[in-house]
Amino acid sequence: MFNKESPDKTISLIGTLSARYGLRAEQLSAWLDSGKSVDDVFELLKLRIDDYIAKFNAEKGGHETILKTFTRGLGGESNLVTFLEVAKLELGTLGRAMDLEKKLLRQWAHDNLEPVDVMKLLKLDDKAETVFTTVRHKIFEKYLAEFNKKNPTKRDTLLGVLTSKFGEAEVATVVVWMTLRGSSRQDWRCSSWRDG
After folding, report:
1. What angle do CA 165, 167, 169 make, to 5 degrees?
2. Distance CA 166, CA 116 (A)
3. Which residues, listed in sequence order, are joined to residue 10 by a DSSP beta bridge?
4. For residue 126, how far is the Cα from the chain centroid?
5. What is the C-alpha to C-alpha distance for residues 52 and 103, in angstroms, rounded to an integer?
6. Which of 16, 20, 128, 148 could tie 174 with a disulfide, CB 3.0–4.6 Å?
7. Percent of the chain scored above 90 by pLDDT?
């Protein structure tokens, strides 16, 4: 469409309709009225973002990925991993969450990140207690296992990484605290330490 006031500039029909009629609000209402669940809309938007990323990369020579987009959009790896753990609780988002988690683990391995670097990205490096009380420990343990496979000469255990980072006294204090709490979370810690 052409702009009558500025004939040398074109105007977007979608932009005009959105501004005039609230197309975004209409789309949201249409999804609600048609019975779309949040998971359904997530899938629709996910498909659209995948398509846009492919088109963007093809036309702009970009190197964008869905992983980079989610990581930036959620404010970093720590928030992304927490988001993925929640997404894995729902059958409708489980597959996508697992796929993104695998991509994140591959990216860290590709970047040759040391376990302490991943701890920092996941915000598990402030105190030992954090590692014992957050869902982000799960992906950290997965990365540690992958790191050990890829680097057999640098093989390390969770206990070794934590002790190196926080010291024996802090780790021991937290282990005792978890034991006194009767937390089942200690089970995975002990098996990780034992099995490496």
Report:
1. 150
2. 11
3. 2
4. 20
5. 19
6. 128
7. 38
